[in-house]
């Protein structure tokens, strides 16, 4: 079937209608974990997460797709093709704490709108199409490190369901069982039928907004590493312990945090380093802390540079702790390699942008995504749509309906190329 067949059937009215449908669904899902300021907290396996997944299932069924869930709770909406090879598209459904309604979720909605349109208008594809509503990506409740896509690619290690705990001490296995999921069945989630993966997502940065481009064709994702640093010192009275006698872990943490920022600034873009959380114990205003724990998230597109950044950070931690008489415990929260995406999938996205007459650009992603995990087992790429002000992980996330419509059209054309023309 020629590409012009899609050109003649997908028009401005389709784009507008699908964008409006997507906008309504985003607002429908916002209520699951939504707060008074418009923010969303939807953590994996929580009641809010379960309600959102039920809504997504209902919507996928209404779209005429066959719906199922895997062992970790990810949902799939399937349009059966002639071949069992699957072209997968979607994103994650969980959120950060007090995040926005669009991060991850809009990617699921765009994929569902695109595949639903193809099901209604183009019939049976050569390769099977599936919407992917991934159960978890953010690691906001558990340090689960791309839980849904790791299950999909067979990378959840034995014992993780008992080792990973949330801030209340509940294991991820226990949380799964509370949702009716059996941790022992996780190996069954491993997919070996994936032929391609395309992940739509908001950009989460300002590049598209500032350039006034509508679509980002993402050809690579940065490597991401996160370490947890715990410094042990000596607690005492804030007034009676002389400064010269102190072994203050919080002061040491402050020095390391400032140094991490200095290292990243000196390396220059695209190096970044972020301290996202910190806690001190005992925590009294009139006490010298005895323990300080914080995280350092650092990223770069070049793995060699990332290695160098990590070496400098670890050297800084050792130097500061030795000088201040502190004991150190380090833990690796995340170590995710960067990836260069498949050239053929990127080319399909670019051709679809040209057909859709939208402004686009090639770009990297400086945030981690499921595509960098799934892209290790099948050809993959991403498309970005703008986020208002470049904002993400905050309540005022927003993508204009016009841009959502453009993203849906580009994905429709891309999936047509991958699933109808490329068998």
Characterize the structure shown.
There is one protein chain. Helices cover about 40% and strands about 25% of the residues. The protein has about 425 residues and is α+β, with helices and mostly antiparallel strands. Strands 1, 2, 3, 4, 5, 6, 14, 15 and 16 form a nine-stranded mixed β-sheet that branches. Helix 4 (about 105-120) crosses helix 13 and helix 11 (about 345-355) packs across helix 13 (about 400-420). It is globular.
Class computed from helices, strands and strand pairing: alpha+beta
Distance between the termini: 12 Å
Q: What series of H and E elements makes up the topology?
A: HHHEEEHEHHHEHEEEHEEEEHEEHEHEH
* Overall helicity: 25-40%
Mean pLDDT: 95
Bulk shape: globular
**Which residues form runs of ≥5 with pLDDT under 50?**
none
Quick one: how many beta strands?
16
Largest sheet: 9 strands, mixed
Percentage beta strand: 15-25%
Rg for CA atoms: 23 Å
Tell me the number of helical segments per DSSP (H or I, 4 or more residues long).
13
Question: What's the SSE blueprint?
Answer:
Blueprint: H1 3-9, H2 12-30, H3 47-62, E1 66-69, E2 75-79, E3 83-92, H4 105-121, E4 127-134, H5 147-152, H6 160-163, H7 172-178, E5 194-202, H8 207-211, E6 215-221, E7 223-232, E8 236-237, H9 249-267, E9 272-274, E10 278-281, E11 287-288, E12 291-300, H10 303-324, E13 327-336, E14 339-340, H11 343-356, E15 360-365, H12 371-374, E16 380-385, H13 401-421
Helix pairs in contact: 2-4, 2-13, 4-13, 9-10, 11-13
